[in-house]
């Protein structure tokens, strides 16, 4: 995928979640393939205050932002090929000026997911 640095990819997970544990190596492999992007694995129980307004019910959930814009927030299948396609499609849509997939979320949901992206930007998490 050819893109400038700046994507922030946040994996929302829980330590007790077996699917999340299975997805972590996939997430790490994607991070190695995309060294110019920022990947953060966030345990929702360790960061309960940050995710308090979200109702994350399906794991793993990815939150993807570009600078101060939310591009995607939702559950994903724990497969590397799916994650690659998702990042490529989001980047392509962004480059073509299309509305991000996250624009379909309810305004409160967008605000709360964007708060996580901003937290990562501001804290260097």
Helix and strand topology:
Layout: E1 7-13, H1 18-33, E2 38-43, E3 61-66, E4 69-75, H2 80-95, H3 107-123
Q: Could you give a short description of this structure?
A:
This protein has 125 residues and is an alpha+beta fold. It is 39% helix and 21% strand.
The helix tally amounts to 3
Count of DSSP E strands? 4
Instruction: Identify low-pLDDT runs.
Output: none
Largest sheet: 4 strands, mixed
CATH C-level: Alpha Beta
* SSE succession: EHEEEHH
CATH topology assignment: Glutaredoxin
- What percent of residues are in strands? 15-25%
Strand order in the sheet with the most strands: 2-1-3-4
List keywords for this structure.
21% strand; Glutaredoxin; 3 helices; globular; four-stranded mixed sheet; 125 residues; alpha+beta
Describe the structure.
- The chain has 125 residues and is α+β, with helices and mostly antiparallel strands.
- It has one domain (7-123): Glutaredoxin (3-Layer(aba) Sandwich).
- The protein has 3 helices and 4 strands, in the order βαβββαα.
- Strand 3 (61-66) and strand 4 (69-75) form a beta hairpin.
């Amino acid at each position: 995928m050819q893109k400038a640095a700046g994507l922030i990819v946040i994996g929302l997970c829980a330590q007790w979640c077996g699917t999340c544990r299975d997805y972590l190596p996939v997430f790490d492999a994607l991070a190695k393939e995309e060294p110019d992007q920022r990947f953060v694995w966030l345990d929702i129980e360790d960061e309960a205050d940050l995710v308090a307004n979200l109702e994350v019910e399906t794991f793993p959930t990815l939150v993807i932002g570009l600078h101060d814009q939310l591009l995607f927030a939702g559950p994903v299948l724990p497969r590397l090929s799916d994650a690659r396609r998702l990042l490529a499609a989001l980047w392509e849509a962004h480059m073509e000026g299309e509305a991000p997939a996250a624009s379909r979320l309810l305004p409160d949901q967008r605000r709360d997911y964007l708060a996580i992206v901003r937290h990562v930007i501001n804290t260097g998490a």
